[in-house]
Design goal:
331 residues, alpha+beta, Beta-Lactamase, Heat Shock Protein 90, 3 domains, 12 strands
Length: 331
């Protein structure tokens, strides 16, 4: 067990550490805590989840044990398994940690390939979108060559600038879609991060964004720039959907379960919601409800959530409106 390619910690029925191999010590920094409670190796905000793990395993049927598997920091897969004696009585918990960083890297590559595949499926539409502004530019250049008056030149130059900017924006969005996302995880205060995104939205459209924060959000381990990008996209979509007189609600909470802890971000709007046919394809690149949109935002938002050990869901509200829910593994 000392040479296992996995961290191993054994805890007795009272929650005391009775064994720890070298890798387990390196991961959880057990040190001289043998004989102490397992909670001493975990930060205080995780103790509730730890108690839920023990309660779940204690109540399991010993003839049908089912380990609890969670992820930590996108690197470790943690397995909590019940230990029973020959009579089936609960005797403790075995904690094992496997390094899944290579598996996560492969998942990121698969996500990247899926995005490229989405681009291929929409190549025909892309060609159409690019062709029209190119034709306009070509026509403007032709007119400039035929007309020498200053007013006409100014008008054509303005048209060229407008259409060139349109092409530039489209290319920028495509580059954004195909650029791999590489999270740089940091411990941050989610409250400050969320408030910053909400205040930016309020400056553009004051009085229409309502913020509700659950007390005790604590710290989270995320890439703050990617999470802000997620929030900015969600707020922009919600404000556009709500229209000139609508409102947007942002809610943040911590969801603690035996499987782990998540930061849950909800963005609601009171707009018309999504058509059912669109709702089924929202995470496909270029699927959008806006004539000027490219449909890249939601697919990138979902990838950000997946890279943080969570997921993104979109649903319609009753009687009207829509909700985007992002779940991010918080530690």
């Amino acid at each position: 067990m000392e040479c296992l390619p996995a961290g191993l910690i054994v805890v007795d029925e009272d929650g005391a550490i009775v064994y720890c191999n070298p890798l387990g010590d390196a991961i959880r920094e057990v040190g001289e805590r043998l004989g102490e409670g397992i909670a001493s190796c975990h930060p205080p905000h995780t103790h509730e989840a730890l108690e839920q793990v023990f309660a779940t395993l204690r109540q399991q049927d010993p003839s049908r044990p089912h380990p609890i598997v969670v992820e930590r920091r996108n690197r470790w897969e943690i397995t909590y398994s019940r230990i029973s004696d020959r009579e089936g009585r609960f005797r403790g918990v075995a904690w094992m940690a496997h390094d899944i960083s290579r598996q996560k890297e492969l998942q990121r590559r698969v996500l990247h390939q899926e995005r490229l595949s989405g681009l291929g499926r929409m190549a025909a539409r892309l060609a159409h979108d690019v062709k029209n502004p190119l034709n306009v530019i070509a026509g403007a250049v032709h007119n400039l060559r035929a007309e020498c008056a200053n007013a006409a030149q100014a008008e054509m130059l303005a048209l060229i600038a407008e259409q060139t900017q349109r092409l530039s924006s489209l290319v920028d969005r495509l580059r954004q879609l195909t650029r791999p996302l590489n999270p740089q995880l940091q411990r941050v205060e989610p409250v400050a991060l969320i408030r910053r995104a909400v205040e930016a939205a309020r400056r553009s459209l004051p009085g229409r964004v309502r913020l509700e924060l659950q007390p005790g959000l604590g710290e989270i381990l995320v890439d703050p720039h990617l999470v802000e990008r997620l929030l900015d996209n969600a707020l922009d979509n919600a404000l556009r959907a709500a229209g000139g007189n609508g409102t947007v609600r942002v809610f943040a909470a911590r969801d603690t379960r035996a499987e782990g802890e998540w930061l849950v971000l909800q963005v609601d709007d009171d707009g018309p919601g999504f058509p059912p046919t669109v709702l089924e394809q929202l995470f496909e690149p270029f699927v959008t409800t806006r004539p000027e949109g490219t449909g890249l935002g939601l697919s990138i938002m979902r990838e950000i959530c997946l890279l943080h050990g969570g997921d993104l869901t979109v649903e319609n509200l009753s009687p009207t409106g829509a909700r985007v829910t992002a779940r991010l593994l918080s530690r």
